[in-house]
Specification:
The complex is a heterodimer of chains A (142) and B (266).
Chain A: H1 3-21, H2 25-29, E1 31-41, E2 64-67, E3 72-77, E4 80-90, E5 95-99, E6 105-113, E7 117-124, E8 130-141
Antiparallel strand pairs in A: 1-2, 1-8, 2-3, 3-4, 4-5, 5-6, 6-7, 7-8
Chain B: H1 11-36, H2 43-56, H3 59-116, H4 122-146, H5 157-171, H6 177-207, H7 211-249, H8 255-265
Helix pairs in contact in B: 1-4, 1-6, 1-7, 2-3, 3-4, 3-7, 5-6, 6-7, 7-8
Classes of the chains: A alpha+beta (142), B mainly alpha (266).
């Protein structure tokens, strides 16, 4: 391999090696996440968080979201199951898509995802105009 | 369409190449957004995302986006490398066609994997988006190399900038024939990119990953156009040689009749 070609090869190889050792967003997301704060941002009206929209931008009435390894998500409120669904990460791991048992699905943008904290943004397209921001902290690892 | 290189190319060659590759780029890019929520040719956007991920401390995503950028770059590199390496030995037509065959192969892999094996995991998404970025880098490298950077079809930022300036000249009556040709080329590319995008979106909704087979069909037309013309030319040339040999061997014909029949065969 020519010298210049070798440099180019390493330029691609090094990040491949680094990324293969790193923890993927899927692994970080797995576990139980407790809601610690939620608010509407970028909205032109004051809207209560219990104004539940339907269709795209679904906000489950839950205090804990459990993302399991088998790609199911279970929503809990005060310890009781209030909903289920299937989750998958899209793009570069910046969007989580949840499909609900009735066939509806909703997309949530992952604004921040670390081992301890999760912040998601939900675009409330229909009934409520604006973006919902929900902050979680991890209570149990997946 | 792909045989002529650089300054030998006519405006019509660039129009044909630009429109067909713009359809492919539009189809692939829209299908990529719908399937993976990520653009497959928006390098400016990816660089901005790369910077954002670094600032946010998302190292996994930063490296991933860096890799995607590298794959687009590597695609363009491969196209130029193949063309310049193969041209002296195999000529323009085969050298220019080789990277298009490579792009067809990559899109076929994405289409087949997506249709039959895709389980919607993040790793698969990252890998397939990487392949699409490679394919788009490769395509942009092909058209830019063989058209001397006159045609670029996978992103429209530069194209819209040029289009703005050309339209300004046009409205001020300062437009010469060269400006008019560029204006026509850029409007054609933008329009066909949009057509490709609409087609890609509709096909993705109708047949999922089968949309990539549609892009393969368009690329096959692009690459086979010159090959078919070459085959027709060779068949015709051979037929003319055979006819000439036949007429030369026919002693019954006089000189005048021989010339008449020869011109008929031509």
């Amino acid at each position: 391999m020519e010298g210049n070609m070798r440099k180019l090869f390493y330029l691609l190889l090094i990040p491949i090696l680094v990324i293969s050792c790193a923890e993927s967003p899927e692994q970080i997301l797995e576990g139980d996440w407790l809601t610690i704060h939620q608010e509407f941002i970028k909205t032109d009206q004051i809207t209560r968080m219990d104004a539940q929209p339907t269709g795209e931008g679904i906000l489950p009435e839950a205090d804990t979201w459990q993302f399991a390894k088998n790609k199911t998500v279970i929503f809990y409120k005060e310890g009781k199951v209030v909903g289920t669904g299937n989750w998958k990460l899209k793009g570069r791991g910046h969007v989580v898509q949840i499909e609900f048992p009735n066939g509806q699905y909703s997309k949530y943008q992952l604004k921040k995802l670390t081992d301890e904290k999760l912040v998601i943004l939900v675009d409330m397209k229909k009934e409520v105009r604006g973006i919902a921001k929900i902050e979680f902290e991890k209570v149990t690892k997946g | 369409m792909v045989r002529q290189h650089g300054k030998k190319r006519k405006h019509s060659n660039n129009l044909q190449l630009g429109s067909l590759t713009a359809i492919t780029a539009g189809m692939v890019n829209v299908a990529s957004v719908m399937a993976f929520f990520t653009f497959s040719s928006n390098i400016t956007g990816h660089v901005a995302i790369f910077a954002e991920e670094i600032i946010l401390g998302n190292w996994y995503q930063s490296i991933l986006v860096f890799l995607w950028l590298g794959l687009f770059l590597f695609g363009s590199f491969s196209a130029h490398y193949l063309i310049t390496r193969l041209k002296p030995k195999y000529g323009s037509l085969w050298a220019n066609s080789a990277p298009i065959f490579l792009e067809i192969l990559v899109l076929l892999i994405v289409g087949i994997y997506g249709t039959f094996f895709y389980t919607d995991t993040l790793l698969e998404t990252e890998f397939l988006v990487g392949l699409l970025l490679f394919a788009m880098g490769n395509q942009n490298g092909i058209v830019a190399t063989i058209s001397n950077s006159v045609v670029k079809t996978t992103h429209l930022t530069g194209l819209f900038t040029d289009l703005g300036m050309e339209l300004s000249r046009y409205t001020q009556n300062r437009s010469d024939s060269r400006n008019n040709l560029k204006l026509q080329l850029h409007l054609t590319i933008a329009s066909f990119y949009l057509v490709g995008g609409l087609l890609g979106g509709a096909l993705f909704l109708a047949m999922g990953f089968g949309v990539f087979f549609g892009a393969v069909v368009v690329l096959t037309v692009t690459v086979s156009y010159d090959l078919i013309l070459l085959a027709i030319y060779r068949i015709r040339k051979r037929a003319m040689q055979t006819a000439e040999e036949f007429l030369q061997g026919n002693e019954l014909l006089d000189e005048k009749e021989y010339s008449k029949q020869k011109s008929n065969y031509k």
